[in-house]
Every structure is written in structure tokens, then in C-alpha cells.
């Protein structure tokens, strides 16, 4: 079956030699595609071109800055020309980000496909995004843990407990 999608969101299914021209297809659309279209008018009020910019933001600024920055708005000049992107940035990384503005501007323009952004302005404001989940360390090798506990058998109980906990973390990373 071949599915032809129209701009108005409808779909037309056609089979070679059979099928009804107005029949709707049962092919689903990705949720991101549906949500982006619904959010575009809301995002456009903030001066941003598309809601997809938020999805591509980690690729544009890089993983090091993705959790600490957000695109706030794009200010378009009245007479036309290149816009200014206003980026909300956590104060702890604002200085580092200021040295990376030109590569970010270039990646942003490659995202848009033309020189849409002429400048990037940083607004320092706390940004709290969900922290990435910490990986669960692998359990340490039982033989190595037994060796560690034998070596620490003569230590005081409080010190021994702390050293065993530290050894467990070190062995889990090795």
C-alpha cells in the first residue's frame, strides 16, 4: 500500500489496481510531529520559529550546555535582517558559554538553513532542567570484596564500615 499525505493532515491510500481514493490510511504519525504542530503557535508568540528548536537544542549548544541553557526568544528587527537569539543561561556556565557563542550561532543558522541569527545574547537566570539519571554502578566482584573485608578485619568498627563502603565504590568502578 502506498500512502500519500496531504498538507492538511489527511491521508489518501492507494493500491495498484484496487482501493478507494478517499480511504484513510491506518499509518500513524510520530507524536513529536503532532505535538510540534500544536505547539508552533504558542512558541511563535515568544519569537521562536518552531517548537522543534527545543528538541534540537542539545545538538545546537552541545551536551555540556544543554542542561544549563534554554532558548528564550528570537528578536527579529523591524527592518528585516538577522535576528538576535536570547538564551537563558545558568550563571554558573554563562562565562564559558560566552566563549562558545559564535559556533552556537553557526550551528543555529545551519539548523534554520540560512543566516537567520546574527547575534546571540545571554540572559543569566537559574535554569533547572531534569538532571540526567546517574548510571547505577555495577556490583563489585564478590571475590575482591571478600579480600577487602579480610584485609579490613582488624580495623575499628566505624572505620571499617567506612572503608568497606569506599572500597565497594572503588571496586564497582574498576
UniProtKB/TrEMBL annotation:
<dbReference type="Pfam" id="PF05258">
    <property type="entry name" value="DciA"/>
</dbReference>
<protein>
    <submittedName>
        <fullName>DUF721 domain-containing protein</fullName>
    </submittedName>
</protein>
<dbReference type="InterPro" id="IPR010593">
    <property type="entry name" value="DUF1159"/>
</dbReference>
<dbReference type="InterPro" id="IPR007922">
    <property type="entry name" value="DciA-like"/>
</dbReference>
Amino acid at each position: 500500500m502506498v500512502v500519500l499525505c496531504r498538507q492538511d493532515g489527511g491521508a489518501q491510500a492507494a493500491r495498484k489496481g484496487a482501493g478507494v481514493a478517499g480511504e484513510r490510511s491506518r499509518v500513524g504519525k510520530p507524536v513529536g510531529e503532532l505535538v510540534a504542530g500544536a505547539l508552533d503557535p504558542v512558541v511563535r508568540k515568544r519569537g521562536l520559529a518552531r517548537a522543534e528548536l527545543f528538541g534540537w537544542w542539545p545538538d545546537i549548544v552541545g551536551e555540556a550546555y544543554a542542561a544549563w541553557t534554554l532558548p528564550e526568544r528570537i528578536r527579529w528587527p523591524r527592518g528585516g535582517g538577522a535576528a538576535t537569539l536570547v538564551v537563558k543561561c545558568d550563571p554558573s556556565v554563562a562565562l564559558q558559554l560566552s566563549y562558545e557563542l559564535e559556533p552556537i550561532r553557526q550551528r543555529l543558522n545551519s539548523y534554520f538553513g540560512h543566516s537567520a541569527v546574527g547575534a546571540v545574547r545571554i540572559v543569566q537566570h537559574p535554569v533547572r532542567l531534569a538532571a540526567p539519571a546517574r548510571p547505577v554502578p555495577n556490583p563489585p566482584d564478590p571475590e575482591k570484596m571478600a579480600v577487602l573485608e579480610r584485609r579490613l578485619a582488624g580495623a575499628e568498627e566505624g572505620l571499617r564500615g567506612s572503608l568497606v563502603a569506599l572500597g565497594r565504590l572503588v571496586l564497582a568502578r574498576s
